[in-house]
């Protein structure tokens, strides 16, 4: 089952697994327009920084269907309009902007192509981004598995598996690789309030791949650590600043603080495309604010008084000093400093 799939040739469309319906329903969305792709990203039908980037690249292709018979100037105008539109869907996930920027640079470099040829070339690039994401997941898994002790209990937060990428995932790929190596790990997935990505998605993926796991409430993490059940914490990231400060799903910072208090290594697994070296520290990372209904109406049922104020940031930022290592497709960055990150990522 593919989370992201391009159906057909250059006149085809993007098919996405609707993650808002999991684990009770398996439903696919056929995205024929940029509005379809934007909506899928915005409402979290597709989520996870790498998956958002791949989806946006394909979303550009569907947005160019009506301008292939025009001149190149008209094509470029529509191309830039679609890129700007899709870039507005989620402000924190840097892979979104990375993929769009890559497509824009290609269009600039191939300015001699007519609209039909340019659209075909852009589809080739989107497919390359898709393929590279799968290879990235495999490499992250190999490097990260080396950090996981035999028989370890591993806490993870949110969802970082095949549902969040085009491949086997980022942090989840580490868990999958360690499991395949026979390390006899046991994964503790916290539910990840308010949208329950850990409960709905990570727990589902653990069962799909036969990885031993236990679902816990977010508030149980400290006690599970104190009981000695956790030997490592591995999460993903949506944007990483030049100094290693890392934005990820709200609650990640809490897990990092708890891990440090219990002398447990906390790792972040993310591709090089998630690093934003234009930002010196995490203080510059924009944090998406989401609708209050996600807190007050959990999956259709009112769970809080309507009159109460809510605060619903989608992400928090974990300072670099809490991170034992950044697991990338190029290797593990340790210690997590501006200098070490630059050595691995700057090119």
From TrEMBL:
GO biological process, alphabetically ordered? L-methionine salvage from methylthioadenosine
* UniProt keywords, alphabetically: Amino-acid biosynthesis, Isomerase, Methionine biosynthesis
| Pathway membership, UniProt | Amino-acid biosynthesis; L-methionine biosynthesis via salvage pathway; L-methionine from S-methyl-5-thio-alpha-D-ribose 1-phosphate: step 1/6
Enzyme Commission no: 5.3.1.23
Q: Which residues bind substrate?
A: 47-49, 90, 197, 248-249
One Pfam family it belongs to: IF-2B
Site residues by UniProt (Transition state stabilizer): 158
Top-level taxon of origin: Bacteria
Is Isomerase tagged as a keyword? yes
One of the entry's Gene Ontology molecular-function terms is: S-methyl-5-thioribose-1-phosphate isomerase activity
- Per the Swiss-Prot or TrEMBL record, the active site comprises 238 (proton donor)
Describe the reaction catalysed, as an equation.
Answer: 5-(methylsulfanyl)-alpha-D-ribose 1-phosphate = 5-(methylsulfanyl)-D-ribulose 1-phosphate
In terms of SUPFAM superfamilies, this protein maps to: NagB/RpiA/CoA transferase-like
* Protein role: Catalyzes the interconversion of methylthioribose-1-phosphate (MTR-1-P) into methylthioribulose-1-phosphate (MTRu-1-P).
What family name appears in the similarity comment?
Belongs to the EIF-2B alpha/beta/delta subunits family. MtnA subfamily.
Task: Spell out the PANTHER family in the cross-references.
Answer: METHYLTHIORIBOSE-1-PHOSPHATE ISOMERASE
Q: What is this protein called?
A: Methylthioribose-1-phosphate isomerase
């Amino acid at each position: 089952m593919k989370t992201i799939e391009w159906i057909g040739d250059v006149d085809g469309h993007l098919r996405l697994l609707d993650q808002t319906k999991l684990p009770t329903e398996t439903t696919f969305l056929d995205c024929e327009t940029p509005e379809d792709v934007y909506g899928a990203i915005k409402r979290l039908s597709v989520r996870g920084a790498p998956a958002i980037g791949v989806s946006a690249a394909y979303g550009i292709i569907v947005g160019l269907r009506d301008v292939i018979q025009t001149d190149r100037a008209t094509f470029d105008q529509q191309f830039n309009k679609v890129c700007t539109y899709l870039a507005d869907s989620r402000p924190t996930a840097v892979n979104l902007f990375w993929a769009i920027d890559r497509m824009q640079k290609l269009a600039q470099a191939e300015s001699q192509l007519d609209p039909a040829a340019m659209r075909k070339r852009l589809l080739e690039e989107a497919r390359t981004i898709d393929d590279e994401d799968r290879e990235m997941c495999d490499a992250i898994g190999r490097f990260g598995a080396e950090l996981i002790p035999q028989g370890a209990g591993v806490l993870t937060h949110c969802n970082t598996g095949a549902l969040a990428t085009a491949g086997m995932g980022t942090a989840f790929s580490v868990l999958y690789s360690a499991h395949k190596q026979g390390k006899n790990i046991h994964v503790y997935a916290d539910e990840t309030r308010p949208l329950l990505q850990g409960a709905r998605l990570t727990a589902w993926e653990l069962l799909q791949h036969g990885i031993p796991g236990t679902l816990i409430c977010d508030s149980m993490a400290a006690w599970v650590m104190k009981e000695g059940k956790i030997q490592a914490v591995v999460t993903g990231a949506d944007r990483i600043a030049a100094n290693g400060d890392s934005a990820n799903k709200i609650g990640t910072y809490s897990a990092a603080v708890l891990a440090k208090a219990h002398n447990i290594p906390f790792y972040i697994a993310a591709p090089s495309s998630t690093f934003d070296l234009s930002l010196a520290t995490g203080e510059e990372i924009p944090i998406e604010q989401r609708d209050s209904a996600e807190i007050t109406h959990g999956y259709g049922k009112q769970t809080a008084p309507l009159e109460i104020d809510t605060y619903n940031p989608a992400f928090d930022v974990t300072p670099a000093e809490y991170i034992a290592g950044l697991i990338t497709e190029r290797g593990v960055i340790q210690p997590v400093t501006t200098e070490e990150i630059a050595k691995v990522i700057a090119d």
